[in-house]
Structure formats: C-alpha cells, structure tokens
Write a structure and sequence with these properties.
The protein has helices at about 1-30, 35-40, 45-50, 70-75, 85-90, 95-105, 115-130, 130-145, 150-155, 165-170, 175-185, 190-195, 200-215, 220-230, 235-245, 250-260, 265-275, 280-285, 290-305, 305-320, 325-335, 340-350, 355-360, 380-390, 390-405, 410-420, 425-435, 440-445, 455-465, 465-480, 500-510, 520-540, 540-550, 550-560, 570-575, 575-595. The protein is mainly α. Among the domains are: about 225-360, Tetratricopeptide repeat domain (Serine Threonine Protein Phosphatase 5, Tetratricopeptide repeat, Alpha Horseshoe); about 380-445, Alpha Horseshoe (Serine Threonine Protein Phosphatase 5, Tetratricopeptide repeat), CATH 1.25.40; about 455-595, Lysozyme, CATH 1.10.530.10. The longest helix is centred in the N-terminal third of the chain and has 27 residues, at about 1-30.
Length: about 600
Amino acid sequence: MKKSLLYVAIAILGGILFGTVALWAVGAGHVDNPFASLEEEVLPAEEDVTPREEMREPPLEGVPGILWPAVTLEWVLDGDAPEVESHLRTLIDRDDAVGYLARLHLARMPSDDASESAVPLLRGALDLHYTVDVHRELAAALRESGDVDAAVAEYLDLVGEPDVVEVLVELDVDRTTIGEALAQRNLWSSLLEFAEEEPASSDLQFLVGRGLWEVGNPEGALPIFEELEEAEYEEASWWTARTLESLGQEGRALDIYLSLGGEGGYRAGIILERRGDLEGAARAFGSAPEPEALWRGARIWDERGREDLALDAYLQVAEGDSSLWDDAAYRAYLLLDEGTPLRDELLASLETRPAWMTRLGLEPRWDLAPELVPVQPEFLLRVDAYRDSGRDDLADLEVAIGESRIDAPGKLFLGLRYLENGEYERAVRWGSSLLRERPCPAAYRLAYPRAYRDLVAAAAGEFGVEPELIWAVMREESRFQHHVASWAGAMGLMQVMPETGREIARALGEPYEVNDLLDPETSIRYGSWYLRRMLDQFVTQDAALAAYNAGPGNAHRWLGTPLGSDPLTFPTAVTFRETRLYITRVGDSRVIYDWLYAEE
C-alpha cells in the first residue's frame, strides 16, 4: 500500500515537471505550439475582437426617477443621442405620453421601408391618443405601403377633413361611397359640391336630393325625388312626401304617407293630428314602428277614453329600449288592474327609477355596489412631476392619455380631486362614469355634488326653495358649468333666459347686464327666484318644472288636458319630448339628493 502511494506521488510530480518545461520551451520559441492551428480557427477576426463603444446614455444624474423617460426622450429629440432609433425603441412600449411621442417620432424617421414600419407605430399612437393629424399620417402610410383598401377605409373615416375627398377620388373610390360617407357626417354642402362634377348614379342622385332638402332647398330636391320615385327607387316615395309636406302641400304628402303603410305612419299621424283628425292620427301613429309614434298614438287614445287601445300601445313602447320606455311603463302600470302579474312586472322595472316611484308614493330601490376605495392613478404622479418641472404640454398629453385608460378606483380618486378643487363639471363626469361601472355611495356623491354650497344655501333661504331642488335643477340644466349657454339662449348654471333675467332683476330692484347670468351667485339667485315663482303658480313639482323648462303657457295648456289635470298622469300629458325627459331627470336628481345627504 505504501509503495502504491509512492508511485502515484512520483507520477504527479513528474507530470508537473514535464508541463513546466514544455511551457517554458513554447514560450521561448524552442518548440512549436501544437494548438496554434486550433486557436486560429476559433478566434474571431482582429476587427471583431475590438470592444464596441457602448451606447451613450442620457444625462440622468440628479434627475428624479419619474422624469427619466421624459428626459431621455428630450435628449434623443434634441439630437444629442448617437443612436436615435435604439433609444426610441426603449420607450415605445410605454402606455403614456412619452411612449406616444416616441412612437410618433420613430414612425416619422426615414428608413428603407418607412411606410410599412410606420403603420404599427402610428396605430399604436392612435390607440393611446387620437388626433386627426396622426390619423391622416396613418392613412398616408397605408397608401404608401401599398395597402390601398386599408388606406381607403381610414380616409373614409376622415371625410370632411381638407383634401380628403380629392385623395379618395385619386384612389378611384366609388363616388357613391364617397357621397354616403359625406351624408353620414351630415356634410351636405360638401356632398352637393362634390356631386356637381359629373352625372351621378341613382344612389348619389338620391343623396343630392337629401342634401338639397337638408340645406333648405326643397324646391330643388322635389324633382329629383319625383324622378327617382318614377324609377321605383326604394326610398324616393317617402322623401317625395316629406318634401311636399315641407312645401305646404300636405294633401299630396298625406296620400303618399298613407300609401306607404307603417313606413309613412309617423308623418301621416302628425299631419292628421294637425288637422284635428285625432282618431285617424292615432291609427296612423299605431301603424308606425317608431316608439315616439306609438307613444303619441297611445296618448291620443288615452285622452279620448280608449284605455284599451292606449294600453296596448304603451306596452309596446315599454317593451323596447327607447328613452320613452319608462314613461310608457308608468302609464301602463296605472291603467292595469291591481293584482295583474304584468302590473307587478312593470313596477319592478320602475323600482330603480326614483322620480316614477316617488310619483307613486313608493320608495325606490337602490342597487348599491360595495364602497370603493380611491387609488391615485400612476399617471397623475407623472402629470404633477411634469407640471412642477415646467413640462406643461407633456402634462396635458399625459392627462388625455391617462384619463382614457383609468380604472374604477382611479376614477374615484380623480373625481374627488376635481371635487376638492371646485371643478364640479369634471367631478360629475367621473362620478357618472363610475356609477355605470360601480354604483357605490362614493360614486353617487361625485355624480351629485352639493356644488356652490354656500350660494345655494343663501338662495334657498332667501326664496324658500329646497336646496336639493336647486341642485337638481342646476345639475340637469348645466352640469354645474357656470359659463354655458344653450342653443335657445339660456345662460349660466340655472340656464335662465336673458329676458327672464331682466324681469327677475326688475322684481328684485337690481341692476342687470345679460352677462350677469354667467356669474354663479346671480344665476343661482335668479334661478331660485324663478323656481319659487313656478312652484307658487303650479303647486306640483312636475308642473312647476315643466313651466321652468317650457314656459308657463305650455304648462297651463297641459294642465288643462284630461291627463294633465291629474298630478299622477301629468307627465303623460306633456307633449314636448324634451320637457317630458326634463321633469323626470330633475325629479330623479331631487330624490337622489334627498336620499344621499339625508343624514347630514
């Protein structure tokens, strides 16, 4: 055993000695290196083994981490980066303002296949933030890449923008297709100008007739529709009748409407009602498919004591999803006998509609989701950092992108932030969005804020109007935007008409300028004064609100009808669709304010 160990030790020492001598010989050049050929095969060429210069990095020393992407982008775009494309590609996967701008700049960089490579980048940018200019860039890139069909689809979406029609013509797009795109966007003047260039197809001729009618030239439209009618063009007869009606030739129009059956029923009903043939009008309305027509027919039968025919029509409307379903369901509920299963079904459908339940003397059902905890969205941190560092344009872009991608906890946080800053319209917008997603108490408080609380309290005390009603009117009239004016000329938070404002100022003995109505305090005071006057004059809230919206004369007229004389059925008597919706929306808001802040 000892001899074996001795032999192993001698062998090891001998190997070490031999290796040392061999390495000395190779190094001294006395012996060739036996591995030289192998090294030559595996070592890269001399230029490849030279270390490459590392990509330069942006100057981030001392910069807060949240600003690194923005500083990197600025460094690249200022021309200081030696490898622009490489740096931009490190930023394009970000779903924020920096990522958006990086995608745009990379898409605009010249390359061998610039148009093809630009398409996904431009689509990605549009997914984050839409602008017409970038949309046009996408359409042009698709065209340059040879994807003409996709380019045409994008250009059709851009119809109405300068020169887009000319581009579509260059791409040999069918002229009727272009005309239809213009008509869908109600660009009637542009359509007429476009269609003058050469003879049109029947479809385009029809659109020209529509355009002439829409721009107020029924005389020019009539021969076109009549010619198409003779050629049995499908929609020409109805439009011939509509044009005759607008020209005062109601007899000829009515004959055509009646010949069209249900298709002409709505307009036939309007003419017959205008002529005083109420039963004929009700039958015509009942033949039409439009919910508004069925509603009008039901109301006529209702007022004439034909409750059986009225009920059938109301039920048809209640089964649909139009804005009239709840009006119809309410009236049908009142017409049905107690204990009828259908009556219980209608009541169940109305249980979450506060105004209707209040009219019935019943409590609405509040289907509340669990309370939500606000969570600050990450993008707001970037917004604040950008603003603090003077990057306001980047901050604005970040807001636009961030708000389009926000989740429910973020909506609540953002809404509360706006509410705290007194930006009530924005708070309501986020609260209303959150209500559709998560109807929790916090969402209700955002969607129904007690805006301008001190001013409302003062006006309520001065004129004896419940604060909750003032807030409800203000919310539905203006969404708490003090600077708005309606198409009819109503102004301010409470949407007071200028002449009404002058009358109120005179009654209060105060000086008055029209723009005073844009002042929150003046608008709230004057609107509350007028509300008090309407409540005193009309007793019920529904009638007072109808007068506030449509004027006392119309409210008196509706009160004088068989349906209007009963407070329960007054909403059904209101013939103006806008006013009917208004009194229910304000009623809903009033009940919600009462419920939401009952314990405060």
